[in-house]
Design goal:
The structure holds 2 protein chains of 2 kinds. By secondary structure, chain A is α/β, with parallel strands linked by helices. Chain A folds into 2 domains: 125 residues, Aspartate Aminotransferase, domain 1 (Alpha-Beta Complex); 255 residues, Type I PLP-dependent aspartate aminotransferase-like (Major domain) (Aspartate Aminotransferase, domain 2, 3-Layer(aba) Sandwich). Helix content of chain A is 39%, strand content 16%. The longest helix of chain B is centred in the last third of the chain and has 16 residues. Chain B is built from 5 helices and 4 strands, in the order αβββααααβ. Chain B has a single domain, classed as Sufe protein. Chain: A. Classes of the chains: A alpha/beta, B alpha+beta.
Chain lengths: 405, 156
């Protein structure tokens, strides 16, 4: 791999000297995204969707064009199927509070996996608690693969919702969403995909996946924080009650009643994050320019370099598949005798940023009997030099902690 | 700040070869302390005599080197002391964490003073104070539990 041509686009990487290996938590932002927020506030700031004057029309156009760009990016049928939220968590909560609460009955089942991020677990716990529906968990193998017999046994006629991550934020494995969705649809269930870890890294087509709902965050794909997306199939969205109530989501209001605006505005109460949406559109443009081929190549090559670099260290354990190509740039690991928090602090001493803890997936940690892990997660701006430095430092950690080797 | 000032020989020694890790035969008080954000989890046991002297103490559980070493160093300091004195030492330790301890006070804390720069690692302060906080809850607020009991304190 030659020098990374994109790294220079990321001011924080150039200026801080940080070896940033925590992109699964949030991605760094290219100048084009940072500038976009500034441009919005300098040249088109007004409250979108309300004003009858030029600036507000500009702001509205920026916001609605961003919606079209997102729809196009994930191959939705129409821009109306894209709802802007704050982040993937809010998107999943929206589905839980509206769709799930209004459709689930006692005895119905919600199928999910033990390896979900808390944001794709807690909303379903809530929905199950309030409706009397039952949560059913798919159990993976240690590499994250969900066996076919699990799917066959647990997705049944009682299943009304299947909520699953596209890519695990801990193991990095990609789930066969298409296969699961086909099975779920056969049984009449609706499929909700947490795509927070996939949309930034691979082409996602909601139709091909068979997703009825799909949630992701802007900030993990180099967009601004505070803008997220919920895709939903139009007929489902139209039948759902609103989520939050307030400004700009109404058709008409009396003192005792209100009728609501059309989808998607029905789900976007209050002043929206138009600058964030504008920035997200620029992030999508940037992703298209870089291309998913480059992203895949870069992440796979660097993941392989990590696997290769630690393969002779008998105290170093990588969670998940032994195949680096099945990690989507996410490498969770443990070092015998050293707590992950100490690993992260010691690497931080060398300005290397990795995540440590339960990665908002405590049930998975228990399932893997891992307690907690450290995690490296890569993105398009990472380089061989980043990984070389990480490997050099990580090999010294045990000595640093007072072990012989 | 150099990381070496915290992760030095003293901390590593208490982490790798703690003097007080394990369980007591007949503890008089015990409390679980948790760091919800980190997952650090310790059980602190003390054997307090009728006259208030802390005759023995131990801990078990899991956590990072900083939380484990800190509680081990704490037990070195408080075993043999009165309840009141132990609470006083905890106060001095908290003062050190806030960067307000005098030279004499640092000396009083002996080996535990290796954690004086932990305030430069804000993410790790909770790890350093977990054992101390748990002890304060037991001795000051009289919170305790039997083995397997649900009650616990947290650093949140």
């Amino acid at each position: 791999m030659s020098a990374n041509p994109y790294r220079k686009d990321f001011p924080v990487l150039m200026d801080s000297g940080c070896i940033y290996l925590d992109s699964a938590a949030t991605a760094q932002k290219p100048s084009v995204v940072i500038e976009a927020e500034k441009e919005f506030y300098e040249t088109m700031n007004a409250n979108p969707l309300r004003g009858l004057y030029g600036l507000s029309v500009k702001a509205t156009d920026a916001y609605e064009n961003a919606r079209k760009a997102v729809a196009d990016f994930i191959h939705a049928d129409s821009a109306g199927e894209i709802i802007f939220t704050r982040n993937a968590s809010e998107s999943l909560n929206l589905v839980a509070y509206t769709y799930a609460l209004s459709t689930l009955k006692p005895g119905d089942e919600i199928v999910t996996t033990v390896m979900e991020h808390h944001s794709n677990l807690l909303p379903w716990q809530m929905a199950a608690g309030k409706t009397g529906a039952k949560l059913v968990f798919l159990n993976p193998e240690t590499d994250g693969t969900i066996p076919d017999r699990e799917l066959a046994e647990k997705i049944t006629g009682k299943t009304k919702l299947v909520a699953i991550a596209h890519v695990s934020n801990v193991l990095g494995c990609e789930h066969p969403v298409k296969k699961i969705a086909d099975l779920a649809h056969e049984k009449g269930a609706v499929v909700i995909v947490d795509a927070a870890q996939s949309v930034p890294h691979m082409p996602v087509d909601v139709k091909e996946l068979g997703a009825d709902f799909l949630a992701f965050s802007g900030h993990k794909m180099m967009g601004p924080m505070g803008i997220g997306v919920l895709y939903g199939r139009m007929e489902l969205l139209e039948a759902m009650p609103p989520f939050l109530r307030g400004g700009e989501m109404i058709e008409s209001v009396s003192l005792t009643d209100a009728s609501y605006a059309e989808v998607p505005h029905k789900f976007e109460a209050g002043t929206v994050n138009a600058a964030g949406a504008y920035g997200l559109q620029k992030a999508i443009g940037y992703l298209r320019e870089v291309g998913f081929d480059f992203i895949r190549r870069t992440e796979d090559a660097l993941t392989e370099m990590i696997f290769e670099g630690v393969k002779d260290l008998d105290y170093f354990h990588i969670q998940g598949s032994p195949d680096p190509k099945k990690h989507n740039g996410i490498v969770s690991f443990t070092i015998d005798g050293v707590h992950p928090h100490d690993i992260a602090s010691i690497l931080d001493g060398d300005n290397i940023a990795v995540r440590a803890g339960h990665h908002c997936a405590q049930p998975l940690m228990e399932y893997l009997k891992a307690g907690s892990t450290a995690r490296v997660s890569l993105y398009l701006y990472n380089t061989e030099e980043d990984v070389r430095l990480f490997l050099e430092k990580v090999k010294n950690i045990r000595r640093f902690m007072g072990f012989e080797s | 700040m150099s990381l070496n000032s915290i992760y030095g020989e003293i901390l590593n020694e208490h982490n790798l070869r703690p003097s007080h890790k394990g369980t007591l035969d007949a503890p008089t008080i015990m409390l679980e302390g948790r760091n919800p954000t980190c997952g650090d989890d310790i059980f602190l046991q003390l054997k307090v005599a009728d006259d208030g002297t802390i005759e023995d103490g131990s801990f078990y559980g899991s956590g990072c080197a900083i939380s484990q070493a800190s509680v081990d160093m704490m037990l070195d300091l408080i075993i043999g002391e009165s309840r009141e004195r132990a609470v006083e030492i905890a106060g001095t330790f908290m003062k050190m964490i806030r960067g307000e301890a005098s030279e004499e006070e640092l000396e009083e804390l002996d080996e535990a003073s290796v954690l004086k720069d932990i305030s430069h690692m804000p993410a790790r302060v909770k790890c350093a104070v977990l054992g101390w906080h748990t002890m304060e809850e037991m001795l000051l607020k009289g919170r305790s539990q039997g083995a397997g009991h649900e009650d616990h304190c947290t650093t949140e």
